[in-house]
Amino acid sequence: MNEKADPIKFHSVDTERPESFIQFLDARRDIEDELLVKKLVIDLLDLKSGHHVLDVGCGAGVDTCSIASLVAPRGKATGLDRSAAMIGEARRRVEGSGLPVEFIEGDAQSLPFEDNSFARCRIERVLVHTPDPRLVVREMARVTQPGGLVVASEVELETCFLNSTNEDLARRIPQGIADGVPSGRAARRVQRYFIEAGLQDVRLVPRVVMNKVAFLKLALGGRVQRMVEAGETTADEVEAFWEELDEAEGNGWLCSGIVCLTVAGRKAN
């Protein structure tokens, strides 16, 4: 088990071990399906040179920088995150790049920007970690210019599937993660939030993200460890669980992943 990263605690990064969350975000970029989702988000944003784009919950800023490179030289990307550690890391990484990008510490539920400030606004894997995802979507719509696009991408946590013969453990792990974050079932409601926020031409695109065992250990290790500590399973049972998934990957029959829902909408003119 990996005790360093515990994505269930992304809503409290600065009181935990920020470096472990940065490690988790970087590890996502080693997964082909994750990169395909990121490409989907970029495609749905329909970026043009000169756009000013807001990246809500930017983390270490890798995606924000990618956006900045696409809207340069006349455009700009602004990354916002509530974590001071993440903003510090993002600023460190972009230093000397010359990219038109800035990073701001702030709350997604109360964006520190005027109405109609951005041509595009995006958020990825953040809504489940916020107490009021509906308010976040409303704030994103508020700061987007008329005719501008808003895109949100989120995983439906309870759809996590693990091809373990320990079906009880494989079922309880994702359920516990969904229960453990502030809004663990937000993904299935994002489409509704977009429509309620007045966005038009709302479109939902589902994708399945298949994961490697190393990433599963990084993502699920904290939850499994808490289950052992709570007496909900045993260390031997968990060891057998991971051994079977390692065997599955080694022999080519690993089938473990999660459903990701990406929603796009346009602000009325």
UniProtKB/TrEMBL annotation:
UniProt cross-references to InterPro entries, sorted A to Z: Erg6_SMT_methyltransf, Methyltranfer_dom, SAM-dependent_MTases_sf
Keyword set includes Protease: no
Domain Methyltransferase, residue spans: 48-166
Hydrolase in keyword set: no
GO process annotations (BP): methylation
Keywords recorded for this protein, A-Z: Methyltransferase, Transferase
A molecular function (GO) term: methyltransferase activity
Entry-linked PANTHER family: HYPOTHETICAL LOC100005854, ZGC:194242
Name listed for the protein in its UniProt record: Methyltransferase domain-containing protein
Source organism of the structure: Pendulispora rubella
Native organism taxonomy: Bacteria, Pseudomonadati, Myxococcota, Myxococcia, Myxococcales
